[in-house]
Amino acid sequence: MADAAVKQRDAAPSAQNSAKDEVRRILDQVKAEGRTSLTAPEGKLVCDAYGIPVPKEGVATSASEAANLADGMGYPVVLKIVSPDILHKTEAGGVLVGLKSAEEVQKGYETILANAKKYKADAKIDGVQVQQMLKGGQEVIVGAVTDGSFGKLVAFGLGGILVEVLKDITFRLAPCTREDALSMLDGIQAAEMLKGVRGGDPVNREALADLIVKVSQLVSDFPEISEMDLNPVFATKNDATAADVRIVVDFSPKEQRYRPSQDEIVRSMSRIMKPKALAVIGASAEDGKIGNSVMKNLINGGYKGQIYPIHPKADEILGYKAYKSVKDVPGDIDVAVFAIPAKFVAQALTECGEKKIPGAVLIPSGFAETGNVEGQKEIQEIGRKYNIRLMGPNIYGFYYTWENLCATFCTAYDVKGHAALSSQSGGIGMAIIGFSRSAKMGVSAIVGLGNKSDIDEDDLLTFFEQDDNTHVIAQHCEDLKDGRAFAEVAKRVSKKKPVVVLKAGRTSAGAKAASSHTGALAGNDKIYEDVFKQSGVIRARSLRQMLEFARGIPVLPTPKGENVVIITGAGGSGVLLSDAVVDNGMSLMTMPPDLDEAFKKFIPPFGASGNPVDITGGEPPTTYKNTVRLGLEDDRIHALILGYWHTIITPPMVFAKLIVEVVEEMKAKGKVKPVVASLAGDVEVEEAAEYLYQRGIPAYAYSTELPVEVLGAKYKWARGAGLL
Amino acid sequence: MADAAVKQRDAAPSAQNSAKDEVRRILDQVKAEGRTSLTAPEGKLVCDAYGIPVPKEGVATSASEAANLADGMGYPVVLKIVSPDILHKTEAGGVLVGLKSAEEVQKGYETILANAKKYKADAKIDGVQVQQMLKGGQEVIVGAVTDGSFGKLVAFGLGGILVEVLKDITFRLAPCTREDALSMLDGIQAAEMLKGVRGGDPVNREALADLIVKVSQLVSDFPEISEMDLNPVFATKNDATAADVRIVVDFSPKEQRYRPSQDEIVRSMSRIMKPKALAVIGASAEDGKIGNSVMKNLINGGYKGQIYPIHPKADEILGYKAYKSVKDVPGDIDVAVFAIPAKFVAQALTECGEKKIPGAVLIPSGFAETGNVEGQKEIQEIGRKYNIRLMGPNIYGFYYTWENLCATFCTAYDVKGHAALSSQSGGIGMAIIGFSRSAKMGVSAIVGLGNKSDIDEDDLLTFFEQDDNTHVIAQHCEDLKDGRAFAEVAKRVSKKKPVVVLKAGRTSAGAKAASSHTGALAGNDKIYEDVFKQSGVIRARSLRQMLEFARGIPVLPTPKGENVVIITGAGGSGVLLSDAVVDNGMSLMTMPPDLDEAFKKFIPPFGASGNPVDITGGEPPTTYKNTVRLGLEDDRIHALILGYWHTIITPPMVFAKLIVEVVEEMKAKGKVKPVVASLAGDVEVEEAAEYLYQRGIPAYAYSTELPVEVLGAKYKWARGAGLL
To answer: How far is CA A479 from the centre of its chain?
Structure first.
């Protein structure tokens, strides 16, 4: 039996080291014995080492010893078989609970041994564990899993049906902070249960969070712990104790992804995105060729740097001197855009390496996506050998508008703005371009990531983080090749700039997800959901939403508080806008009486003060003006949502112009607040909405939900970045 | 104690009558004694009468009698105080559970009496109830509430935290059918619990459904039963037994809403919506007046019936002979449109009554919405007195395009189509008009309902049900004045035509909801959600969604089965479309091998067969054509979702035209299936989307979710109408 004193993880470094040494010793033994899981006593020792509370227990090798142990710890007790050959103890009849006397314990001991023999005659039996039986409090589950993309994750849920039937479980990247752990307690649907229902005691949140943190630290310190399940953990008003510990290990070596330093990423990505000189490999003068489209986009797009067409035979292409190889180009080249068939890529890429070009934009398809995994591996190796960062392959290229750079075969796009978008899929990239043009959305960049043989979402985040032209980053992805790196970078970047992600493949049954029990409970998507939240990422629910967020978030100023006020001409819009406010995680300000009175002065006696402020439909422009001005002026109000109703008295463009006027007037006085608008009316409201949007007020015709969704996204970001 | 034999509700009529007589007798006594709730023994008698299973029990008036009773029913037992003055028994210390012997029962009896005295010294105590204690199975709650709008509702949920913390409860209108009751068992989040988890037995679904039906019948037979709670009900593999019965009564008389017969509604609504002659009360020749806008809209809209301007002084208005009163008009008038201030309405309406005009469109505001409740009551009374149906007041009027009728002061709208829309709010009405014009959505009617002093959503449903020009009905509402009538009519109408409802005020804390315990658990919105579902109503989640559903549903043919196939040029769109399919309650067809092979023949070797069928981006028009043709031809496929990717090889309009061509070709062969499309590309895809939409293929640019939402809505309707 373990006589080791409980060691606190947060004790002095030497204690920490000895804790690590103890776990290392146990794992070494498990490895030496070729096992894939720890016995219960080993599990308890590991918990002891990390200060994870477990019940009193001991292992008996005879019935009388079992009774003695039980007498020592007090009744009731639990008996469990200890055998490296029996993993599913209950199934083997190897568990008896609630034994209340020495006599029952003695009889139980014999029963368990007999059951074990019956279950597996040749099982090696180390004895029977006698364990203090925990009662009362709330049964919860704490676990850890290893995800293919995110690595170590810690999991938390309530026991029983809530996890099993309702999948009410939440994940965080391990190791996690105390704040992360506390947020997990609020991150389940049944969170209220922990606060004590039906007169029950609330759990000790600090103790539970402490246990979660320790589990997350343990699995992070020992990557070979692939799964850990503390189920159940009894959480009471005093403490949290793990009644059962299951630890699964995997000692097989894991391949590490190549990760340059953040500085190196910025350096190479800057040369790719803002090149002084650029080569087009496969440049062509022939219409319809990809290499021709790329050349034209570069030239017509107004790119001011050097353009070097590379072509095996031509001397000149579209007025530019052509070269046979990048190696023949006299000056430095920052990036090579590939517009040649897949089979020629490796050779040309090697030449780029020899020329010390730091980046390659691999437009060609015909790699992993068509089954040519070997071909993709080959170019990845060349990239690593020569330290070339690879974008793609199988992409449309990229745009960086502030350099007038359209390194793509798609249509050119040149409306400068502050949204940087990327897509894993070419089709979605085309939708981004179309939407941007249609909505007059200014962008800083649009990037295709395709097969992501090298450059990944996290590389883009690292670049856009320090790119002053970019104020919001919106990414479409189907998977994250290295979710861990993405989350770490996103957590840092999202503190400065909003990061929006549309994760496709939400519903695909999470088949590739963690194979473990705890992981399989919720499915892959819940992991993405939780990690995005932990990382401050705003999740878009649809393509259109991602696009609207990219468009609206950089336009809106950051709110300084949570007090949202609706001012509406249409009572009906007010109701729908209120619904949308709640749906999008905001709340309507409770009007202070003096402010209520102040609004009342501007609206007809039958209008409704309170919030929404219903100015009623038949009002002249001054009523909108007065109420909106008041809303912007009063510092207790932090954001305005406007509901406009088309009337002859206040036509759409009159409304739009006066709102812009008031907003500008207040801005001049230092009153800067996010304002969004919903416009109900005949088609003239479309022009008014566009007018407003172009002037910093996201406005939508025929929709009460879209403006509020955009405001809600800005709020989500501000909260995640700690600005609220 | 009850010695009455258990009476089955579904027995012969005489038994049913005697069951009713028994309950009537009990309720009469409760009423006579001025009580608002039944005692436990009374509750048991009521359950007995309706065949609702309850445990064995009896009431003892001495400790020894209690022990005798317990001996007779077997241990363990529960003891409960019986007192009309103590409603919250547990709070009063009036409940003891799990008593295992005669001795415990005797002692318990004394304890309970002592507690009761302490709780309320002057409480009248009828004795102590001894009840067989039920164990095992699944604890569930069955209840009934009285909702202000929907009347009697039956409720079902699992006991404990699932109802209390997670609000996992479901409602149906009472009385409900066996099918409704069975659907409730699947209508909770934790439905799996009833099927037996962790090796437990499944509950007896028929027994549980039977109990629910009986409760729903009981509260319907006796409207004075305002609340009923069976909590817990023990549901086992054999039966379902209510362990505790709580019945609250309310004998105060309820006001009944005036309801004409369905035939009468159709008759009067037809004269309003398709009038041969129409009076404009307050018609004016003066620009800017509401009565002028109405006249112009009627004239310029092309209305072919008689128009009678009513004006106190004018002889002629805009070329039409004017009259001082409707009573001066020589011929019959079908409807009077009011464009006069509120204060003159009552007098003019009385004249309409004397003229026997069956309908009044009350545009004026200044009634209940401004606090003038009396004024509204006055016109309601005039309406009833003369049998005039009232639309409004406080509305924009209405449009009925097939009669070229714009009886409104808003802008005219004349694009004939098959969607009939209505809104409670004027602002939302203007959004409907703007969206319709912008999206070229044909409508049959747009109707403002405003204060709904008389004509309500259900009247419109009844009219549009038989209106051949209307194929889909979409309604915005903030409340349903008579949810019961709405649900009953919607249930019938939705079998023939899709009914879409946008219920605003979803999140307003349901304050006006049922005041009872069970009702308050879920909040008002869950009731709307469940009743809409029970009635076959498609619920729109946002204003834009309601509009898109109204636009798309009538355009799409009804699918003949559940097999949905995605054909996409963009793999990325395929993933997002798949997500949307699941989100919208559909499922992707599992491809039969032969069909898979057939598709493979048309797509490049590196394209992905299966579902989505990924034809890859670089394909010529023929690939789209061949695959879509196959998708339409094969009878195992019931609906197609197309993902288009803009390329030079297959430009947007080429794609759009070929799709229309193939769909038409197949239609000629009798292959009619719903097809929707998502278009990813540069702005030219907008024109292509419009081309497709105008030809029966709902198509959206830059969105993967909208086309699938529309298809999903059509599916929801088809299932609700029993067509799938």
So the answer is: 11
In angstroms, the CA A435 to CA A450 distance is: 20
- Work out the burial of residue B5: count CB atoms within 10 Å of its CB; fewer than 13 is exposed, 13-18 middle, 19 or more buried: exposed
Please tell me the predicted confidence (pLDDT) of residue A12. 58
This prediction's pTM: 0.89
CATH 1.10.10.60 fits B13-132, yes or no: no
Instruction: Specify the 3-state DSSP secondary structure of B307.
Output: strand
Mark yes or no for CB contact A682/B569 under 8 Å: no
Q: Which CATH homologous superfamily contains domain B262-552?
A: Succinyl-CoA synthetase domains (3.40.50.261)
A427: nearest CB among B165, B423, B680: B680
Which chain B residue's Cα is nearest to A544? B703
Instruction: Count interface pairs A-B at CB distance under 8 A.
Output: 226
What is the homologous superfamily of the domain B563-720 according to CATH? Succinyl-CoA synthetase domains (3.40.50.261)
- Could you say which of A371, A430, A682 has the minimum Cβ distance to residue B645? A430
Residue A603, classed as helix, strand or coil, is coil
List, in sequence order, every residue forming a beta bridge with A400; answer none if it has no partner.
A405, A445
Q: For B289, which residue in chain A has the nearest alpha carbon?
A: A648
CATH 3.30.470.20 in chain B: give the residue spans: 138-249
Tell if the CB–CB gap between A575 and B505 is shorter than 8 Å: yes
Q: What is the DSSP string of B337-402?
A: EE-S-GGGHHHHHHHHHHTT--EEEE----SGGGT-HHHHHHHHHHHHHHT-EEE-SS--EEEEGG
User: Does B492 score more than 70 pLDDT?
Assistant: yes
Test B571 with A427 for CB contact under 8 angstroms. yes
What distance in Å separates residue B67's CA from the closest CA in chain A?
29
Coil, strand, or helix at residue B225?
Answer: strand
* ipTM > 0.95, yes or no: no
CATH 3.40.50.261 residue ranges for chain B: 262-552, 563-720
Q: Which of A76, A141, A137, A121 is closest to A102 using CA atoms?
A: A76
**Residue A379 buriedness (CB in 10 A; 0-12 / 13-18 / 19+):** buried
Distance CA B341, CA A318 (A): 74
Q: Considering only the top CATH level, what class is A138-249? A: alpha beta
- Rounded to the nearest integer, the mean pLDDT of chain A is 91
The pLDDT of residue B395 is above 50: yes
* Contact state of A680 with B572 under an 8 Å Cβ cutoff: no
- With contacts defined as CB-CB under 8 Å, which chain A residues touch B540? none
Chain B closest-CA separation from residue A619 CA (Å): 13
CATH 3.30.1490.20 segments of chain B: 13-132
